[in-house]
Amino acid sequence: MFDIRIYPDEALKSKAQKVEEFNQELVDLVNGMFETMYKRGGVGLAANQVGVLKRVLILDLKAGTEEQGKNPIVLVNPEIVASEGEVVKEEGCLSLPGLYRKVKRAQWVKVKAQNLDGEEIEIEGEGLLARALQHEIDHLNGVVFIDRLSPLQKRLALEKFKKLKRNYLRKLAAEGK
After folding, report:
1. What does pLDDT average to over the chain?
2. What are the residue numbers of the active site?
3. pLDDT (0 to 100) of residue 146
4. Which residues pair with 105 in a beta bridge?
5. Segments making up each domain of the chain, as ranges
6. Which residues are known binding-site members?
7. Per-residue pLDDT tens for 27-61?
8. Whether pLDDT at 177 is above 80
9. Binding site residues for Fe cation, as ranges?
10. CATH for 10-85+105-146?
């Protein structure tokens, strides 16, 4: 399991590098990311969020349900190649625990990526899947969801997050993390 980097950690502001080697180290990274994401109650996680600057993301929209782990998504070197529509919905992030804000995203996206064997794949999604894909790919580009807010909304969100962060860090300390 990994520690999740908390905003404004430098890894969250850094652009991840393309994965060139598809090996056991990559598989171990993905397995550790899933363990971390499930433990922290998320549905998606980018490698930046655990301090690894590689273009890898995972998703499991059924996390926290009986279906957890039955249809996980692993994308290596993902890139959005098409998008349509627009929708504004609330988002949260494991790197900004407890903070939720409405963010504008595309309603539908098409993503090209590679799987853990290096084979090229495509995934299309709408609704929550589209939102999660965009959110995690943003992470790989050094962007967190509050960067998509207006300057005023971002300032207000960061003021609230300062308080949330103190409480979150106290909770982790109590857990012995």
Report:
1. 95
2. 136
3. 97
4. 87
5. 10-85+105-146
6. 93, 135, 139
7. 999 999 999 999 999 999 999 999 999 999 999 99
8. no
9. 93, 135, 139
10. 3.90.45.10
